[in-house]
Amino acid sequence: MNSRRLLVPGFLVLALVAGCNRQEAAWEEAREADTVAAYQEFLEEHPDSPQAQVAEQRMRALQRAERWRQVSETDSREAYQQFLNDFPQGPEAEQARNRIAELEREQEWQRLQGSNDIAALRAFAEEHRGEPLGDQARQRVEQLQAQAQAEERARQQEEERRRAEEASRTHRVQLAAYQNQQRAEQGSSTLQDQLSDVLGDARLEVTQSGSYYLLTTQPMSEEEARSLCNRLQEDDQECLVVTAGP
To answer: Is the pTM value of this prediction over 0.70?
Structure first.
């Protein structure tokens, strides 16, 4: 009887040792696989294991790493923000915040880089001084300023050219004189058609001088007027070079 009683604890010890061995083997298998599925299976089979907390932590780390890989591939502000909502304290959180800031800067620059708003570009360059996008904004400001200066110089030159051209228009070519305005206007239309090859771009006008209606070209330089009159005379058209007046 005594020997039988002594055998019972022995079997219990062996069962406990076998259970521990199976749990240790399962833990080693989970560690070697190092996957979410392996740790999940280990936790389902051995929820009270001393390694349960470590398995839980490792499983969550793997899940977070996989989410981070997916988020990095998506590389959108929304994906990074959702990651932060789910893992606000993870080691990748700071990277996610930094990338969100970068994407916001890039989005703002996309809106500004084709803009002519110097004030907005200058503010962006100042806010991001020393950063690549800030340098690009500063270069855009310089480009726009140089362009504005070039356009202003061109405008001034064109204005000076126009004034000089107007100042040089001191003479007209007179083709005829009429005492009747209607006849003068009819003569203008007729001669404009007949002499179109010689007149070129010169347009005929009817101007009044005392009791006469003069048929003349629009004002032009004296040189142009004399050259045109010579060509008209060669075409048997009488003409006279006169001053354009005020």
So the answer is: no
